[in-house]
Amino acid sequence: MAEQETKKRWKDKYKEMTRRQKVNMYLRWLLVIVGCFVLAFGTATFFTELNIVAGGLSGIGIIIQAFVPEGYEVIDITVFVLTWILWALGFIFLGREFALKTLMATIVYPLALALFLRVPFFQNLSVTMAGDGGTADILINCIFGGLCTGAGVALTFLGGGSSGGVDVIAFILEKYTGLKQSIGSFICDAIIIVIGIFVIPDNIIPGLCGIISAFLCALMIQFIYISNLTAYQVDIISDHYLEISQYVQDELGRGATIIDAKGGYHGDDRPILRVVVDRSQRNALRDYIAKVDPKAFTTFTQTSAVLGEGFREYPKPRTTKKNTKNEENNQDLEENNDENGKSE
């Protein structure tokens, strides 16, 4: 019964969506799928053949693979098992919403990794990239592997999902200890890399290069994902502000606010049109303003965060033991006050 109600609710929600919202939803799904394939390709092609441990569940799989007899491939199996274990933990400790966001990556990434590890064409490509296993070959694979995996993770983030894996542990630590997700993820990856350096025989150079890969991965996430979250507050003073406002609403799909202001020199009324756009829309707006009013006075201010409709959702309040205790104390105090009021 509950499952039928959930399906009905999702169907009703889908029917209420506009065409633009549906297209955006499909594009987000596509980004998550493409990101998983890019992440899997970078891992299988550049890391596995040379036992380069750069963190993540694939790093654990490479460590285990080093102790398995030759001819048996267990990296993808290890990733598959651990991914679903961590997804279940995320469902338990982080809730259904988080589990839904990571579900697609949980399904697609292990399958994509198995594809790149077991199809002969990609196996030969991995062997070719490994070369003779010298230091130069290791360094080249670390560089390209780090760039690929970082791009893959960033694309899944842009799609509104998550790559799952050790990120789940980092989110759980953030929820219950207050440790930042980025720091928690770094600690998890660092532990895996250090274990790989000391546990896998003759793996010091690939292990140290794995640190470079992890650093490049973080840079790619910063370049692709974080930079795309940048938004701009645009203040426009123009005689054509109504025309520009209409363009913003109809073509860019953003809201606009008209602020009454007075000129400092003549004291005449000068309405200010205030708009907030994302990075991809900044140039389009600038070009349109230049087209309709080249003399318009416009300022573009980069924002650190924009929350609300059309941008990022508000994060849910973090519940801690301290907050829960304070709420309980406040509730007890209110109950006592009510009882005192009744007795009077």
Features:
single chain, 344 residues, alpha+beta, four-stranded antiparallel β-sheet, 13 helices, 4 strands, elongated
Structure described in brief:
The protein has 344 residues and is an alpha+beta fold. It is built from 13 helices and 4 strands.
Provide the fold topology.
Elements: H1 2-16, H2 19-46, H3 56-65, H4 75-94, H5 96-118, H6 120-130, H7 135-158, H8 166-177, H9 181-199, H10 204-228, E1 231-237, H11 241-250, E2 256-259, E3 272-278, H12 279-292, E4 297-303, H13 321-343
Antiparallel strand pairs: 1-3, 1-4, 2-3
Main beta-sheet strand count, sense and barrel state? 4 strands, antiparallel
Number of helices: 13
Q: What series of H and E elements makes up the topology? A: HHHHHHHHHHEHEEHEH
Strand order of the largest sheet: 2-3-1-4
Number of strands: 4
Describe the protein.
The chain is of the alpha+beta class and 344 residues long. Helices cover 68% and strands 7% of the residues. The protein is built from 13 helices and 4 strands. It has helices at residues 2-16, 19-46, 56-65, 75-94, 96-118, 120-130, 135-158, 166-177, 181-199, 204-228, 241-250, 279-292, 321-343; strands spanning 231-237, 256-259, 272-278, 297-303. A 4-stranded antiparallel beta sheet has the order 2-3-1-4. It is elongated. Residues 339-344 have low confidence and may be disordered.
